[in-house]
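Final report, section 2: Outcomes. Of the targets proposed, SDR family oxidoreductase is the one most frequently requested by collaborating groups, and we therefore present its record in full.
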Amino acid sequence: MDLGIVGKTALVCGASKGLGLGCAEALVREGVNVVIVARGAEVLQAAAAKLMAVRAASAPFVKHVAADITTAEGRAAAFAAHADYDIVVTNAGGPPPGDFRDWDREAWIKAVDANMLTPIELIKATVDGMAARGYGRIVNITSSSVKSPIDVLGLSNGARSGLTGFVAGVARTSIAAKGVTINNLLPGVFDTDRIRGMMEAAKQKTGQDIDMLRAARMKSIPAARFGTPEEFGAVCAFLCSMQAGYITGQNVLTDGGAYPGTF
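The predicted structure is given below as tokens.
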């Protein structure tokens, strides 16, 4: 299927690895120019090289910006690399797990700043230009925890749910009639560094073998496996497509059927 986005330009955040890189790769394969942003310069440069190797011939450039997108300076650097984005994929590392009794105000502010306020700032910076040009796609990578909260991820539950409420309103304003969509993409368990880190923490806490922990987690997923960044990226690319122009304000679960609800 031709997604109709050849020649568009995308900003993809947190794209040095994992789900962000999966989204960037899917977009460059469709002929989209990309600017990828992440904090680690060395890993980001390797990611850019990988994207250059797989990009479609119709995508003239892949740029990388080593910056912290959760800061004003980081966002300024992203917009210095390219001013007018047609596609924005927001993504920031999730807050650490823990017990809510241990989180102080600073921990909450950091979580909200990264996982709610930063996407809002990126939306503010791009949505009017998209509307003026008659096309725009914003995809926020959030978490399945906004549908089914995870007790030890309270910081993430709270911050990402705040973003979800904001998007529900702004996606349905006048921008919807001007070709601009805003959707949230909710990953379940994917085979990334984050889940590997959580498995390692569980090993330290329980003393169980990593392979046993992985097998038990997979057993709880109807698909009986973890997702891959590549298939996550494919869903993201579709949400950015011309064919997805009638989808906005939605929370799209990609969790292998793990969420048990009807709605």
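The mean pLDDT is 93.
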